[in-house]
Amino acid sequence: MSSRVEHPAAGYRKIFETVEELNEPIPAEVTGVMPSWLGGSLLRMGPGLFEVGDEPFYHLFDGQALMHKFDLKSGQVTYYRKFIRTDAYVRAMTENRVVISEFGTAAYPDPCKNIFSRFFTYFRGIEVTDNCLVNIYPIGEDFYAVTETNYITKVDPDSLETLSKVDLCKYLSVNGVTAHPHVDADGAVYNIGNCFGKNMSLAYNIVKIPPAQKDKSDPIEKSQVVVQLPSSERLKPSYMHSFGMTDNYFVFVEQPVKINLLKFLSSWSITGATYMDCFESNDSMGTWFHLATKDPAGYVSSHKFRTSAFNLFHHINTYEDEGFIVVDLCAWKGHDFVYNYLYLANLKQEWEEVKKAAMRAPQPEVRRYVLPLDIHREEQGRNLVSLSYTTATAVLHRDGTIWLEPEVLYSCPRQAFEFPQINYSLCRGKKYSFAYGLGLNHFIPDRIVKLNVQTKETWVWQEEECYPSEPLFVPTPGAAEEDAGVLLSIVVKPGAERPGFLLVLDAMTLTELARAEVSTIIPVTLHGGSREPA
């Protein structure tokens, strides 16, 4: 999996540049053979507007939300994209400036206002962004584009029109939720967000949105909190981007990257700070694993799992096996916040400078942690993990904590396996063999990787001056094999006659089956999903 590819031409800069939306779908030129069974839509979210007027957006997660769609039907492919009409986007376009603060870009009062108007603007309070550039997923029979705040945006997956803005705070006790929910077989959606718990301390609520309702009512209106987990610090919740779920348990990893709530409330409303300004790293807490039962729901306070510090954004899979919970995830070593290295000024540098910056950043690993469920006091000092296929350990200490050490499934300096996917419908919460990911070469996406989590064998697709996105696994209908299916990825090849294309790979071998090329550049996309044919 180690990438020896260099990018001296810095073509990757093109994926961080503004594009225009399309008035209508455009046809793609297909080479190769699309599987006859493959149809429906690939939906993706990402930033598409990187400046407004003379004001740039500074961070990778600041650009205004652009929704992409590749439609596949009878071997024919079209591509379409449209900006989501969020409040952040509409007001920015109307006033030709950044109006709502984003992840790493602050909004300031209109300079045309007089000094009194500007003064009172500062004290209006916190205006949270609805810039839903991170992911899109179904709730019931509808699709929602999301970021990580309390706002989600209902969209039409056919026309890509923006339908409505939804404030989750009206239905749930959360300040925001992650962009990576889990979906049960019945369609119920689970997620996690921070909240105010007992005695005005911060806590974490796992929430449930029921599946599509027979009476056609909105399932979001029937949302509920399932279980609450405590925070290690009263006013400093950890940043969260995903969580683990098995058939019977929830796993939440509380990392040492913290949100300073007092700084958030004070500096934001007075000085126009950004979300990034409110993060800080706790260099002494390490990392905590929290466990909760699913049904009946309850926090397992007796199991205090601890390990050394790491950043976590994406879980791969979590499953139960012989009295243990196995947690596979993409880790970044240490407590330094990885997002500090994702400012656009860093990512758009010359290649040698990009590499130097990545050398200073936390280093990536794919790790497996194992959490024992059955714990006895007399077993202090011993490794409690008895699974034969892993070297991960869990040792009970005298103070009652269980110290975890991982098995490393993949590690290579400055070469990350990230944006992981699995055969979700077959393997979520089950023992599995294969994960698929986007390979980051010093933070630049330049390959697609398949990882056998049992043998640690890897397969790679890579092409010169090509920049792929998160691969989506689509299973072959009726197939029994876990990796029978295809991977779909949007790839950008700057300078080519048709610089954007949908890549279709055989998920077993990572050999190319087909590509559908379009005559337009496509900016970086973050996450997304598929929609079956109507």
From TrEMBL:
Cofactor(s), names only, from the UniProt record: Fe(2+)
Free-text cofactor note: Binds 1 Fe(2+) ion per subunit.
Keywords: Iron, Metal-binding
GO biological process: retinal metabolic process; zeaxanthin biosynthetic process
Superkingdom classification of source: Eukaryota
Chain sites annotated for binding Fe cation: H180, H241, H314, H527
GO molecular function: all-trans-retinyl-ester hydrolase, 11-cis retinol forming activity; beta-carotene 15,15'-dioxygenase activity; metal ion binding; retinol isomerase activity
One Pfam family of this chain: RPE65
Record-stated family: Belongs to the carotenoid oxygenase family.
UniProt protein name: Retinoid isomerohydrolase RPE65 b
Native species: Echeneis naucrates (Live sharksucker)
Gene encoding the protein: LOC115042280
